Every structure is written in structure tokens, then in C-alpha cells.
Sequence to fold (250 residues):
Amino acid sequence: MTPFTAELVGSALLLTLGNGVVANVVLKDTKGHGSGWLVITTAWALSVYVGVVVAGPVSGAHLNPAVTLGLAVAGKFAWNLVPEYMLAQFLGSFLGATLVWLLYKDHFDRTLEPRLKLAVFCTGPAIRNHGSNLFNELIGTLVLVFTVLYITGAEITATHAAVGLGSVGALPVALLVWVIGLGLGGTTGYGINPSRDFAPRLAHALLPVQGKGSSEWSYGWIPVVGPLLGAWPRLCSTCGWAKRLTEQRG
Fold:
């Protein structure tokens, strides 16, 4: 695969499994109906693991425009590759959301509540307050990108030689997404990823979902703008300052 196709396929897998678990929990007459928030957050974390395992060796598995932006601002990713990565992430997310609709179409048709159908595609607030909703998305993404910048590889202590962890190296990111969902996801559903929310919301608007209702675009800008603000330069400069301070004390 090329980096573009790796980001596309990784994002598609992320959304297929992530949105798939929401469909399994909220839609009528599924095997997992009503199984709850812990099931959703756990499966989303594992879907991140799957996406990173597949895309990581080729593209670095950003799978999130906020991560791509944060790494570019931190000087860890080339700016000329940012548009290519973001396009792949949006396309992959749209494809993943569409596949979930096809897989669960019978259950979509049996579910009468439009908001439950929308919840399969994208996030929504528990309490609608745009100011606090935006702040919550910003903080959740800040925690994500800040921690990603500090994830380190394994090495042999005596020689400082790097040790490859293979697919196990994707586990820290999955655990990070899991704890963000458990700790911070109760307010907005922790979008923390512009492509994860915008592209499926667009799919909801375009697909012939029976009885779907509104795509709620009046809220849809929050899980896009919030994560992008959360990945902005202040975060990365803080990360660099902390590293320099550690080096000086060492």
C-alpha cells in the first residue's frame, strides 16, 4: 500500500468497527442491543488498534486529521503531505460509515427513533451547550495528541538499540483512546477526530436511510473545530518545553 491507501483503509476499518459497535448497541433487535457504554468504548479502542496495525507500517497510522495537524505543527510530519493524509482519512471514514449502514440495514429499518440512527454515524452531546461541548472536544483531543507525542518505543537499556514491537506497538494508542472514552466521553461522545464525525455525518445526509431525520449540522461543526483547536501549536510547544526541561534536569 501507499501512505494514501494505508490511511484510507485504516480509517475505513476504524469506522467500520467503531460505528459498527454503536449500531450493535443502539439499533433494534441486534445481538448486542442495550449492552452499554463500556462495550462502545472498548470496541472503539480496539478498532483504533486494528486501524493502526494495518496502516502503521506504511503511513504511521494517523487516521485522524487532528493527529496529522498536531504532528505537522510539532515538526514531526511534512506539511506537504497533510492534504493527502486528510483526504484519505475523510474518504476512508465515509466508506466505513457506509459499510456499517449496509451491514445493519435491516436493523436501521426496524429502529424508529431517528436520533438513534444518527448516533450510529456521528457524535452528539448529552447536554447541548455549544461552548462546553466545544471545550470538551478540545480537551479530549489535546489529551490524545499530547500523549501520542510522548509515546516511546522500546530499547535495550545498555546499548539504547531500538527493539521492534511489531503489532503490539499499536496497543498504547488503543489504550489511550479507551481511557479518553471512559473518562471524557460522557459529555459529547468523544469525537476527537474531525474525519470520524464529519464524513459519517455526510454519509448519513446522503444515504437513503429509512426514517433518518436531521443530520444536525448545527452541531456538526463542533467535533470538527474542537479537535483541530486541541491539536494547535500551544500543545506542541508545551510538549517541546517539557522535553527540554527534562533533558536539562537529566
User: Anything to note?
Assistant: Residues 233-250 have pLDDT under 50 and may be disordered. The two ends are 41 Å apart (CA to CA).
